[in-house]
Amino acid sequence: MVVYINSKENEKIKFAYKLKQEKYRKKYQKYLAEGAFDLELAIKAKVVEAVFTTKQLDIDENIVQYIVNEDIIKKISSLSTPQNIVFICSIKENKIDKLDKIIYLDEVNDPGNIGTIIRSALAIDYDLVCLSNKCASIYNPKTISASKGSIFLMPIIKKDLKEFKNTHHIFVSALKEEAVDIKQIKTKKPFVLVVGNEARGVSEESLSLADEIIYIPIKNIDSLNVAIASSIMMYLLK
Amino acid sequence: MVVYINSKENEKIKFAYKLKQEKYRKKYQKYLAEGAFDLELAIKAKVVEAVFTTKQLDIDENIVQYIVNEDIIKKISSLSTPQNIVFICSIKENKIDKLDKIIYLDEVNDPGNIGTIIRSALAIDYDLVCLSNKCASIYNPKTISASKGSIFLMPIIKKDLKEFKNTHHIFVSALKEEAVDIKQIKTKKPFVLVVGNEARGVSEESLSLADEIIYIPIKNIDSLNVAIASSIMMYLLK
């Protein structure tokens, strides 16, 4: 279906604009994404509800296309140079077949890091990305952009780490005296791999739930970027 | 030395402002960095020429401190929320003791990726980060920010890959039929590890110089982020 919209005051535009705020994303269980590359993956993942575009697109006819002008795109886009396609996605409950390999983000604050970790988790074939309540928003435009479309395909939930304690082996990444070099670690499935905040590392609660504390030996500086450390660990523990 | 500056039109401020542009960074062989964390590392690395700050700092007396107001900081800062410390660094020729392990960036475009790779290279104890001429600027504020201070400590140069052909084993990361799983690869020192552009991968020229083509097997999506892929490979090839 194709519908033309010329006014920024149109209700559909006002609704899309609201989704720039986390509180409305939560309320309506919807979020915005942008660009042709992401749209293609989101359509495959069957999460697209409506598309705002400056030019009619050759996509599934069941998806409503609002043809709008560049001013309207600018209003609902989060990019300084919009790509002329903005679309609304629904947040769906993930069907999760198995839970052998889980990456758990404990207070990761930077949306770009979260998006990059989601992308790595999908590529390294993890089963789930799980976030603590104190992480940045999954549906922040920077998370979505950094995920390069993997956010539409990767199962992601919010949950307390302690809910995995009875079912999973818990590896916690931390620079502690008792930590073991990741290279010495043998995978024990099913497992959860926990990584922490960019500045403070993992929480005391996560440490107290650890079955093994692990680390990547480094030199010259204090830390690796959390998305880098997570990805190296995911790769080695798969 | 402490000097007070009240005007945005002061020559020192105008000079600092010029360094926001790559052409002046090249011309004067200087660049800007920001924040207390980076300043501490830059002082250790002996690259700081002058500091602009809203409050006098307890640092080496030989470094000139210009005490300025927040408006002036805003003018010379690259951050939307400046940290009240902006400083000028000199680009020095790196003393390089050995060249056993080199990471080579072939047309990497995103300054954040370059900064993150520099940080990983320092942490994983590589000897040199080498950039092709088509990479983003080393001294872009986003490169410096993502490097988390490692830019002051890590040897970095620009050079053609072919200059290493006679002295180093060249590993090139690319998704080609003849590529070998990184897990099967044995390190051969001295070596250069080449990674490519975010969208296009490595250039044909780099491929033609390869002694071995290597890849990280992934599933579900087309690629890992280049900083992630580089760091996993650096870690495995060290």
Write the layout of secondary structure elements.
Two copies of one chain form a homodimer.
Chain A: E1 2-4, H1 11-18, H2 22-28, E2 30-34, H3 36-44, E3 48-53, E4 64-67, H4 70-76, E5 85-90, E6 101-105, H5 111-123, E7 128-131, H6 141-147, E8 156-158, E9 169-173, E10 180-181, E11 191-195, H7 204-209, E12 212-215, H8 226-237
Parallel strand pairs in A: 1-4, 3-4, 6-7, 6-11, 7-8, 9-11, 9-12, 10-12
Antiparallel strand pairs in A: 2-5, 3-5
Helix pairs in contact in A: 5-6, 5-8
Write up what this structure looks like.
Two copies of one chain form a homodimer. Chain A is built from eight helices and twelve strands. The radius of gyration of chain A is 20 Å and the shape is elongated. Chain A has 238 residues and is of the alpha/beta class. The termini of chain A are far apart. In chain A, 29% of the residues lie in helices and 22% in strands. In chain A, the strands form two sheets. A seven-stranded parallel sheet of chain A has the order 8-7-6-11-9-12-10. A five-stranded mixed sheet of chain A has the order 1-4-3-5-2. Chain A binds chain B through residues 112, 116, 119-120, 122-125, 146, 148-150, 153, 216, 218-221, 223-225, 227-228, 231-232, 235, and chain B through 112, 116, 119-120, 122-125, 146, 148-150, 153, 216, 218-221, 223-225, 227-228, 231-232, 235.
